[in-house]
Amino acid sequence: MSNDQFYSEVPASLSRSDLLFFLAAFVFIYTQLFQLPFTPYYFDGDPIIVTSNAIRMMNGEVMYRDFFHLAAPGADAVYAVLFSIFGVKVWVLNITILFLSLAQVWLIWYFSRQFFSGPLVYLPAALFLIVGFRLYFIDGSYRLSSVIFVLSAVAVLINKRTSQNLAIAGALCGLASFFVQTRGVIGIAGILVFLLWENYRNGLHLKRLIVGSLCLLVSFILLVALSHSYFLYQAGFENYYFSLVTFLREYYPSDPLSNNSAYLSDLPNFQRFLEVYSPAFAVSRYFRIAGPVLFYYLLIPFVYFAFLLVRWRRKTFLLTGPDAKLMLLCVVGLTLTAGISAATVMRLSHISIPGLILLVWLFKQIPYSRRIATVCLALLALLGFSYIVQRQIISKNYLDMPAGRSAFLSEYTYQRYKWIGENTTPGEVFYEPFHPSYYFPFHLVNPTPMYLIRDSGYTPRFQVDAVIEALKKNPPDTIIWPKKWTKPPELRAADDNLEPLWQFVAANYELQLEFSKPLDYTDYTEGDVQILKLRK
């Protein structure tokens, strides 16, 4: 096989346009994460799970043994290291999100340079930044990190598939499995499928296929073994296996947002917007949120089928570098899509980078695509600038917390956090069953082995019993309880195991006040909460 079947024209070094683009991307991302000059915005989402776990690890607890976690330990371990160096601060989280976001922008740009020139190079990244970034990509949890490592493996292979590069790609997929245990396996599967396709296309060189596959697999297995061994040893095999395998197989699918029923479940309810806002503002705000939701639901996985259909209808199966590169992105993108546990818009958007590249490649096939792309980039740039201005000038509330001064974009969220700050002290035992929102910013202690539970088969009875025993042993003064969980036994679903916990809480705690949430985008968010205080 000739060398040009492995190599293609390597993109030139960074041009002035590239530098300006990366500068603009940095400014956009930074201003979505920080109130200028340096005050971090506080985002209450999945990253708070891993930061809370990191604090527990810093305090000497062993993950999987002393407290439960369903994902691999990579993100939690990284935050534990960062907090040990810089302190348990909100800005550390936001800076981490900044670097993760810039890594994604770089990957999109790098892939774009393989296929496009001129304004088309920047269109996929511009779509990434403007369409839904503020809703779905401000995330420092394990999911994005794992995807970045898989796509980095693709970047290593996109121009050459030598034994050395395959070994590096395998190691990167091993790192992906250090953050999400299944993601690296899915990445390896996609790359192997592509190698099989490429080998078949080029004449079935079985020895080359076997050697390349072994390089990929051996480095993957070694990296997985090295990265997981310490945590496996500390937690014990039984705890480790239950958390990372058994739970995902037997209990995780019971949650509505963890199975196929999640598809389109996060499309916002327009009626709820009309209940809160004026009709004109409700329409505007609804489409600002629903637009990105629909974009990613339509993009993934349908763009891959559209690409394969166009390629098939042309009856042209090229032996050139670009064709192989496109197929690599398509195959890995499809395997990443097949590997998600539930097709929520956030999980689809997190694996959307190959789809964005193929979308622009399809767009490139239409007449005058470069001119249209220039107009689209100008419009996206104007919209991005408006997002920067809007984020910086809208009214905010500021709160000094043990994790540092932060800006709150939501009045509702601020009021809850303000109350928590005024009524707790760092190191205090505290419990919130729905989501670990307050442990990290206020340095509070969760006395139970669970960072969240659900009113479904997602949380088995033995985990509920473990929570009750922990609360008996070390009762917190305050519990934040979702109001929708306060209900009699006859109204609970068949797989809802929370009744004994609620009976314990009702017998030992009394209602102090409620916080009402004026608008929920879906039926699966927390909703109104009750502040319960221990009876003296």
Provide a count of the helices. 22
Strand order of the largest sheet: 5-7-6
Helix coverage percent = 55-70%
The dominant shape is globular
Low-confidence stretches: 1-10
Mean pLDDT score: 89
The whole-angstrom Rg is: 24 Å
Work out the number of β strands.
Answer: 7
Distance between the termini: 80 Å
- In percent, how much strand structure appears in the residues? 5-15%
| Structural class determined from secondary elements | mainly alpha
Main beta sheet strand tally, sense and closure = 3 strands, antiparallel
Q: Helices and strands, in N-to-C order?
A: HEEHHHHHHHHHHHHHHHHHEEHHHEHEE
What does this structure look like?
The chain has about 525 residues and is mainly alpha-helical. The protein contains 22 helices and 7 strands. The protein has helices at about 15-35, 45-60, 75-85, 90-115, 125-130, 135, 140-155, 165-180, 185-200, 205-235, 235-250, 270-275, 280-300, 300-315, 320-340, 345-350, 355-365, 370-395, 410-425, 440, 460-475, 500-510; strands at about 35, 40, 395-400, 405-410, 480, 510-515, 530-535. Strands 5-7-6 form a 3-stranded antiparallel beta sheet. The protein has a two-stranded antiparallel ribbon with strand order 1-2. Helix 9 runs antiparallel to helix 15. The longest helix is centred in the middle third of the chain and has 30 residues, at about 205-235. The protein is globular and about 75 Å long. The N and C termini lie far apart (about 80 Å). The relative contact order is 0.11.
In short:
This protein has helices spanning 16-33, 47-58, 74-86, 90-115, 123-130, 133-137, 142-157, 163-179, 183-201, 206-235, 237-250, 270-276, 279-299, 302-313, 321-338, 345-350, 353-364, 369-393, 411-423, 439-442, 461-473, 499-508; strands spanning 34-35, 39-40, 397-401, 404-408, 478-482, 509-515, 529-534. By secondary structure, the protein is mainly α. Strands 5-7-6 form a 3-stranded antiparallel sheet. Strands 1-2 form a two-stranded antiparallel ribbon.
